[in-house]
Structures are given as C-alpha cells and as structure tokens.
Design a protein that fits this description.
alpha+beta; 9 helices; 22% strand; rod-shaped
C-alpha cells in the first residue's frame, strides 16, 4: 500500500490547495534527482511526492479519496495516472511525458533557479590557483654551498629561486604563491621546481662529504710540505706528511657540503695521486744509482684470483 498522500506531503487533511502546493514545491526542490545526483533514495522520494501531489492537487481526485471512493493508489480511476503508477516506476527513470509525474512550471522554475544559483556560487567562490611545475639545472658548487638561481618562466618572467646547501638531483622546491593566479580572491598556486644538479670535474659527492683526487709530484710525496688545494670554499694551504704514498687519503673537516639548519658541514677527502710527469736526465741518473736502505716490493702479496 502506498503511503497516505497527506502524510507524504506533510500536510493536514484540511490543508488548503495553497498549503498543498507550497508543501509540494518545497519537497520537490529538496528531493529532485538533479539536485541529488547519485542518490536513488532521493529519486524514489521525489516520485512519491509527485504522485501524492498529483492526487491532492486535483479537486475531484482529492474529494473521492477523502470520501473513500478511491484509495491512496487511485486504483479505481485513471490508472495510467494513478498514485501507484508513479510510486512503482523503476529507479533511475527520467521524468518526461511518458514518465507520468512532472513538477509544474513553477517547480521547474524553482529548480532551474536553484541549479543556476549553485553554479553561480561555485563560479564566484574563491578558488586557489593551479600549481605549476618546472625543472632547474643547478651548478654543482651552488648545490654544495647554496646560492640563488634565476628561473625563466614561459612568459618571460624571471623567478628568483634560493637554493639551500645540500640539495640533490630530483629534490623539489616549493615556492608558495608563485604558481597560477587564484580566482575570485583565492590564493595563487605554488611553483614546484625539480632540481637537477650538474656533475663536477673535480669533486664527487657521497652524502654530505666530497671526494677528490689530488695530483702531487714525486718530490711532494716523498718530502711532504705545503700544497695549495682547491676547495668549494676557495683555495686552501694543506701540508702533506713526509713519505705520502699514492692512494693516501687526507681529510679536511668541514670542507664538504656546507652546513644547513641543524645539519653539520660535511668533509672533503683528498686521495693522493702521484704524477711523475716528464722525467729529466738528472732524475733518471739518480734512480739508476739509487739503492734504497730498506728495499720493499710494492707488488708483494699480489696474486691472481682463481
């Protein structure tokens, strides 16, 4: 059995036609499928409301229902327009000339007004701008020491980008408010800048430490003494120990990736590489006549692995 149409519309049995019309318009706007997408229960409710209104807005039908000559489903009269006809339509069926119940012209006007108002509010609401992505090539020493780079945007503008010490390839910097413009007073989007750190001809990076091969002469390696070493912070005078063999590693504390925030500076490791260069006749003559006091075989212990 269909629900009592008076109960469906939420009006008393002695409600005036105007009260019935007002209740119907309010409920129809509230439950219309176009205002409740994806909610089949709202569509079913709307059908029931439309069927109840169809019965009660017709003076003759209403009178017969009140006298008990027809029930809430209106089975005895005009079944093609009965209350059951509307209540039993398949969920999802649209409301057209063959679908039976349709809101009257005023309800349609209210519905369109609601849809228009929703769209107007959505279009006029503040909207955040889009984030925009860029790539920026960073010189190695700028990534180690920190610097400020200029990124040229597609529209020709230059964007100043502060590079903190220690950045790596693939790291993304977010510059707030430097993306697409906001709408209707909304905030601008952000610029997302992916960094690509270039390699360096002298230094290799491992974490926050740097490594470099330091060429030295035979004399410097044997006698030791001061040499000038290029570091990311500038030239540095370093004293080599006497008898420094090839491959010896010297650690320069704090000369690697610069400190940033709570992170301490890294170190610079120098690996000595002896360079003979062009041997003159004096050196050749000395080596021919030279006999070490403590001869050593530099290849002792070398064996080919099986």
């Amino acid at each position: 059995m269909a629900e009592d149409p008076y109960k469906t519309l939420g009006v008393p049995r002695d409600a005036s036609p105007e009260a019935i019309k007002s209740a119907y318009r309010k409920l129809a706007r509230q439950h219309h499928p176009d205002l409740n997408p994806g909610k089949p229960e709202a569509e079913a409710r709307f059908k029931a409301i439309s069927a109840a209104n169809d019965l009660l807005s017709d003076p003759e039908k209403r009178a017969r229902f009140d006298r008990g000559e027809i029930d809430a489903e209106g089975q005895e009269q005009r079944p093609q327009h009965s209350y059951r006809h509307y209540a039993e339509q398949p969920t999802g069926e649209k409301y057209g000339p063959r679908g039976g119940a349709r809101p009257d012209a005023e309800v349609f006007e209210d519905l369109f007004a609601d849809l228009f108002e929703q769209r107007r509010r959505a279009e006029s609401a503040p909207r955040r701008g889009m984030d925009e992505s860029y790539r920026l090539a960073v010189p190695f020493l700028h990534a180690v020491q920190g610097a400020t780079e200029t990124l040229t945007l597609p529209d020709g503008r230059g964007l100043s980008v502060k590079i903190p010490p220690g950045v790596e390839t693939g790291q993304v910097l977010r510059l707030r408010g430097q993306g697409g413009p906001g709408r209707n007073g909304g905030p601008d989007g952000d610029a997302l800048i992916e960094l690509e750190v270039a390699p360096h001809k002298l230094y290799r990076r491992e974490g926050n430490d740097l490594h470099m091969d330091l060429p030295v002469t035979v004399k410097e390696a044997v006698l030791g003494g001061p040499v000038i070493v290029p570091t990311p912070g500038g030239p540095l005078r370093v004293t080599l120990p006497e008898g420094s063999d090839a491959g010896r590693q010297i650690r320069l504390r704090g000369r690697g990736v610069a400190a940033h925030g709570e992170r301490a500076a890294g170190d610079l490791f120098l690996t000595l590489r002896i360079v003979i260069g062009t041997a003159d006749e004096a050196l050749k003559s000395f080596l021919r006549d030279w006999t070490p006091e403590h001869p050593e075989d530099p290849r002792a212990g070398l064996e080919a692995a099986p």
